[in-house]
Each structure stands twice: as C-alpha cells, then as structure tokens.
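Following up on my earlier thread - several people asked me to post the actual chain instead of describing it. Fair enough. Here it is, all 547 residues.
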Amino acid sequence: MKRKLIAALLSMSLLAGGVLSGCGNSGDSGDAQKENTVAAEKQDPSESATASSGFNEVGYPIVNEPLTLKIMLSIRDIDSLVEPNEMPAIQRLEEQTGIHIEWETVKGSDWNTKLNLMFASGEYPDIILASGGVYDEEYGVSQGLLIPLDGLTEQYMPNYTERINMEEEDPTVSLVASDGHKYSVGYLVAQNINTNAHYFINTTWLDELNLEMPTNIEELTDTLRAFKEAYPDGVPLEMGVDTGYTGVRYMLPMFGIPVEDNKWIYLDDNKQVQLAPIQQGFRDCMEWLHTCYTEGLTDPEILSQDDNTINSKLKDAGGKIGFFLGWRLTAMGYDDGVMQTCGLYTPDSASLYRILELAKEGGGAFLTATNEHVAESLRWLDAMLETETMFSLYYGEKDAENGTGWVYNKENGKIDVINNNSVDVNKTYLDINTLFFAPSQYISEVFNMSEQRIEKTEYCEEYEAKGILQKYSNMYLNLAPLTSEQLQSVTLKETDIDNAVWENVNRFIKDGVTDDSWDAFVETINGMNVDEYTKMYQDAIDTMDLE
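Reply from S.P.:
Thanks for posting it. Predicted structure:
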C-alpha cells in the first residue's frame, strides 16, 4: 500500500526548542502516550461506547444518554463566526445525533502554537478538525498522541466509506503513515484530472495573421517572432523566473521535464527518480529562453518581475500578450485581460505533472489518544457528511433568504451554491474545508461544479486525450515512506539544490549556455551528493505499488 510522507517539517525553532519533545513534561510521557494509542487499538470502541453512552451503532440518535465531545477547530484568519452551537446546522446535528460539542475555534495564524501547547499540556480535545498542520508522523507515529483509525472508519462511517468505494482508486492512500496506520479522516474536495501547468496562446492574433496553431518549440518560436513583428506594442512571451505558475519551473514541462513546485526531481515513465537540473531538457529550456530574451520576444522585465506584477499584466493587458503560462483563466480573474484573446495551448512534446485526487495530508479529523468515545466520535463525523448537513455547514442554509447558502437546481436536481464566499461578520456556517469530504464521483452526482472547476477539468481532459500528462505522478514522491531523519536530510538537500538552480537560471537566460558553463553547473549540482539524495527517494518509490 502506498504510504504517506510527512506533509511538512515542523519549524526548526520548535524542534530546536524541544516544544514537542516536552509533551507530558516527563521522560516517560512518550511511552505513556504510545500506551494510550496501543490500548485504543486493542479496545473495541463499540463495547466502551455502549457501556458509557447508550450507543447505537446504526441510525439516529447516535447515543441515548447525554454525551459531550470536545473539538478543536481550525478556522481562517479572515473568518468571524458566531459561536458554532448557535449555527442552525450545528443545532440540527446535535438534535439528530444526541451529541453536544464544546468547540474551541483557533485562527490559522495561531494554529501551530495552540496545537503544540495543547499537546504539551496533556489535556486534549476528543477530536481535532484541521485544514492542515496535524502531522501524523510526529503526533501519531512518534508520540502516540493520535488514535489509529484502521478499520474503524469502515465500521462507523458509512457515508465516508461509500464515497471512497465509489472511486476507481482509493483517494485516502495518502493518509497512510510510515508505520502503516491511518491516523485521520482526510478532507477532500474533488479534483478529477488536474495539473499545475497550463499554457495559453493568443488565438486572436493567430487568426488575424492566418497562422496555424504551433505544435512544437520550433513552431512556437516562429509564432512568437511573427507576433513581435505584427504587434510591436505587445509582449510575445509573458513570464518570470522564480514566479510560481508563471515562471521557469512550469515552462520546463514543455521540454519533457515535469517538475513541480517544491522539488527538482520527477518520476519518469519507468518509475525512476530523475534530477531535473542536469537533464538535457533543462538545458534546452535555458537555451530557448535565452533566444527569446535576446530577440526581444520576452517581457523585458522577465528577470526581475514577481508573480504579482505578472498577474496584474495578465489581467490588464487586454489583447497585447501572445503567449503565457499560468494557472487558469477564470480562476485567476483574467476576464477583462488575456481571457478575451487567449485559449489553451497543448504542445505535442510536453510532459505535464499529473496531480492525483488524494485526501489532504495533515488535514481532516483526528482522534486524540485520550478520546474515550471513539465509536461515537466517528459516527458524529460521519453524520456531518450527510449531504444536506455538509453543504449547510460549508455554504450556509438551504433555500436561505439572505443570499448565502444553497438550493437544489430545478432542472437537474443537483446543488447550486448561492453565496459568493464573501467575508461575513458573524457567519452562521463554518465554511471550512475540514468538513468537506467529496471525491469526484460523489460530488459530480450531487453538485453543479463551479465554472472554475469545470474549466480545470476541461483543460486536463484535453491534456489527457493528447497524451501529454506524465505516467507516474510526482505526487508519489510526497507519499514516499521516508523516515523523519531522511526527510530532514532531503529537505536540507532540496534547499541547497534550489539555491544553486536559481543562481544559474538568470545567468543562463541573460548570457546563454555554453558547454563550459553547463558543465560547471552540472558539476556543482553533482557535487552536492545528489546521488544519495535521489537514492533515498528511489528506494522509497521501489517499495510502493504505483498505479
């Protein structure tokens, strides 16, 4: 089974300061915490539940006797919520289940601090609901502060299980920790086919100049030259360097290098880990960008502008940009800019990074080791996933008269959202991703997708049909079962590689690539002991059953 890599490192300050290692304030605390977890694994949750709360394994209410659970909930910094128990959907949920919740809401900017202090105190909530930052490797595997949920979600969460079973591939494989256990009920909003890199070309200019759609880099270069000659006040190629979706990293797939946003490695079609900067495709990209730069085909500010500047230009430039790379047109608000003249470009030779539909790592619902009501907790979480409850918690009330909420579409019977996700004061719904588990098959049956999500799916279906999505997703690299020590090692190495790459990219674009400068660059990269780095990943990948 695929296993999950630690989603992120805890901050070095926390590690150095020993905040986490100090949980329980005694040398025996870690052992005691792990004993709690082991006990939770061996205990039959339904037996303790029945004895303590008049537990019903099916149907509602969940309990016949009053029961209160404590929940620590992460919310966005921008949100201003009424007390959750004043929310109509929460009130209905309590009436339905018989379970009362004591809520502790924590702003995202305070989350890590509050989470660490909570674990250090030894006094835990029963459930943690988080959009991210709960690292099962640290809190579950290492410290035993979280309860493994293997087999329990199948037993007590029929809604959750049914949605997983509807999918061709299990979207929760990313939740498996290095010890083989799942410590969370993951959060997932359907992604379908997806990729980070999208390319757009000015189809209006193509039509005006009677040009065919270019099919390769050579034809694209000639097209950019034609754009420059015909439209001297325009920008043939708009992009930056280290600027996310608009930068060099996302141009590399055009040259067969499907890197993503936090590593300089990728998986080839043979499941082999490849180091991107030393590949011929990387050099080809640098040489091409140098050609574009010296011929005046790029924005003259390509070497200095940031992502915000580029996005402003894409929004405001109207029909004056010939080619660019970015996220998506509608999603980025390019309605009055490049969206008016540009359409999707699908290069024949590209290898685009394939994004999988996986439950969110570090986010979702977690049960702490001191939770004495495991079965009740899981059944309550599953009750949140009842379709009308979930949408009311996420968007607001059904048929609401105040302009926020959702309705059933009269034509197809699916759900339409009628709020605009504006920042409200004293919101009466949670609007938090943690509460939304909706894989693609399920959500396509009950929900009318937003224009942005339809746009993304249509793009990627075109890429899929053309066969330019990579065979094995780089996301498997983030699932690779590395140890905590290995993760620290590779993270430091990735920082060194990243610095070396960006130190040279600007120079390559401005001054060009010679055999001597390229050999020196490759020697620098290889001198960082990158063989050991890639071997760590390769060994981990070799243990995984990749699709």
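Residues 12-191+359-395 form a domain with the D-Maltodextrin-Binding Protein; domain 2 fold (CATH 3.40.190.10). That should answer part of your original question.
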